[in-house]
Amino acid sequence: MTIESILGAIVIGAVIGAIGRLLLPGRQPIGWILTIVVGIVAALIGTAIAQAMQVETTPGIDWIELVMQVVLAVVGVGLVAGLRRGAR
After folding, report:
1. Res 1 pLDDT > 90
2. Interval 3-43: pLDDT, tens
């Protein structure tokens, strides 16, 4: 792994996590760092699922993969927020 790929994963994770958090209704009691971590995990899992389903990689934006990543981010943010609420 290069520094560019690590930084790229952080940036993509932040964007995916933020989109997932925005699409989830209500207030989520999680911080921005946890949102980025959830976004990174969602991006990695979404990419793995897309590759397993043999979704073609295209030049530009891979919309199917992006939708999978965002859906996983919404689920991830919801799960983490629910766990954080239950711990209080």
Report:
1. no
2. 887 788 888 889 999 999 999 888 888 888 999 899 999 98
Work out the angle at residue 53's Cα, subtended by the Cα atoms of residues 24 and 64, and round it to the nearest 5 degrees.
Answer: 45
Burial 1-39, CB ≥16 within 10 A → b, else e: eeeeeeeebeebbbbbbbbbbeebeeebebeeebbbbbb
Token pair 């934006």 is at which residue?
Answer: 61
Residue 12 amino acid letter: I
Question: Domain coordinates of the chain in residue numbers?
Answer: 31-88
Distance, in Å, from the CA atom of 63 to the CA atom of 15, rounded to the nearest integer, reads 15
Distance CA 16, CA 56 (A): 20
For 77, other C-beta atoms within 10 Å of its C-beta total 25
